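Assemble and predict.
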Amino acid sequence: MCLAIPGKIVEISGDNSESALVDVAGVRRKIDLGLLQDDKPVPGDWVLIHVGFAMSKISERDALDQMNTLRALGEIDGAMQEVQGYGLEEIDIDDVEMDDAEPDDVEVNDAEVN
Amino acid sequence: MKFVDEFRQPELISRTAEEIRRLAGSQRHYRLMEVCGGHTHAIYRFGLKDILPENIELIHGPGCPVCVLPMGRIDDGLSIAQQPDVIFAAFGDMMRVPGTQGSPLEHKARGMDVRIVYSPSDALKLARLNPEKHVMFFAIGFETTAPSTALTLMRAKAEGIHNFSVFCNHVTIIPAIRAILDSPDMRLDAFIGPGHVSTVIGCRPYEWIAKDQDKPIVVSGFEPLDMLQSIVMLLRQLKAREAKVENQYKRVVPWEGNRAALRAMAEVFQLRPYFEWRGLGFISQSALRLNDKYAAWDAEQRFAVPGIRVTDPKAAQCGEVLKGVLKPHQCKLFGRECTPEHPIGALMVSSEGSCAAYHNYEHRKAAMASSLTSIA
């Protein structure tokens, strides 16, 4: 769980570019870009993903190395299972068009946690 | 050494190992602690101990959020989910962690609505999909994960989703390191700093370790070469009697951390005055809870929680292994009553726990060795 998963941004979505369709070794899922609002990625960028959120941008070289590391650690299956599970894709629900009301602009305090 | 060929520059790995042997010499015994569970796992998986000289000892730190969670907190979370129409949502690695009445998975078998989610935002999605139920997300993790929980809560608030709450067990890494250093039975020379926690908090929070405690710390990546290079950097500092924070993982970790993530955490969380860590006891200002602005989404405020402290089974020595005082195999239950298939303590349940890591790799080595001698 500690290690992040590399993925390639395919498409940005959301009013505030707060989510993206990402490709991880051929599996495509939506992830949250809320933690990269100060350094927004564009399609083609590689990011490190942790629990469905992009944590940082990395080079393609480093993304491929990270995949290698996950494989070598025996964590690639767990990582792919995590990615495949994003968006509750494993849940057996009807293909309902979710009425995702777009959130209002969220006010954030410009204060850092101690 | 395993996997050498899978990484680039295998000759560089050999040369770095040589440099470590040269720097370490034979006179001094070095005790280096790797803080995060991901590094513990890497050390065993890559067989790094086998290529390090004998006078370098790697001690496993408490950076496994599942492992440091006291059993009572699991009981508390499950007790909330026992209410009618509550869905218990948690990451996969929480599912087999034992509470006093069993793990979440065992509760599921007994009829509780328990769901695995792979993201806190999916727990929120569950709430949207099930308006007649309440979804309680059992949140764990260090600063790598806390910002995602924070953002999810901000979205819940913005969208006015009220059938959602978070049972917050996020902990912070610095107080744990401080507690280890304050512990009388610990003697450490230097630290291998966490990789992905540092992408959020940056390297600055470690400066007191170097300045006040006079111990070097190198933030490290997870490849074998990363960890070996970090050990070289630590040895160089120790030999030069220096103590500073260095960043070996520059390609991923920015010195200043991730400001958007830190802002999200500041928006949603506040520090608990104290929190109990399995094996380390109560540590002040070491864990997060939802602040007053988010009280409506705080499971501990919406639901009554028993809050009973549960001590570990007497024979289980999770605490001492967590502090690095005992090696996993020195715990009396290790490999006997407590195995990955039947875990007694959390260090055996989580793949980042030192006991699970040790069991899987060292045990296999011993089994291989004995089967080879029986063939010979």
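The two ends of chain B are 23 Å apart (CA to CA).
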